[in-house]
Amino acid sequence: MTLHQMTPVTAVDGTTGSSGPRVWTDMTVEVALSVMAGARVTHLLVCDEDGGPTGRVSRAGLIAVRDGAGYTDRVRLRDLSDISDISGISDIS
């Protein structure tokens, strides 16, 4: 088990230009929504396996995915990268 799997949410440091909870692509949509609720935020930064931010996912986008016809509780954030705007993933660059 890697460190990011044991600690799925960390604060983003000021050097990235973005702030908020940070999560990894292997997190499920349901867990991401729970993290958002617990942190009282409307978006999460999505990071690659090296911890570098690759995008942002919004609560509204995740809810839209969860309410979609093809949704299962096994959908992970990495599965959303090829879905259009409804996924709530946006580039942070």
Helical content band: 10-25%
- Spatial strand order of the main sheet: 1-2-3-4-5
Structural class: alpha+beta
Query: What's the total number of strands?
Result: 5
**Any idea what the radius of gyration is?**
12 Å
What is the percentage of strand-forming residues? 15-25%
Profile the largest sheet: 5 strands, mixed
User: How large is the count of helical segments?
Assistant: 3
The whole-number mean of residue pLDDT values reads 73
Q: Give the overall form.
A: globular
List SSEs in N-to-C order.
HEEHEEHE
Q: CA-to-CA gap between the ends?
A: 29 Å
| Poorly predicted tracts of residues | 1-17, 82-89
Question: How would you describe the overall organization of this protein?
Answer:
This protein has a five-stranded mixed sheet. The chain has helices at residues 3-6, 29-39, 59-66, and strands spanning 10-11, 21-24, 43-47, 53-58, 89-90. Strand 3 and strand 4 (53-58) form a beta hairpin. By secondary structure, the chain is α+β, with helices and mostly antiparallel strands. It contains three helices and five strands, in the order H-E-E-H-E-E-H-E. It starts with a helix and ends with a strand.
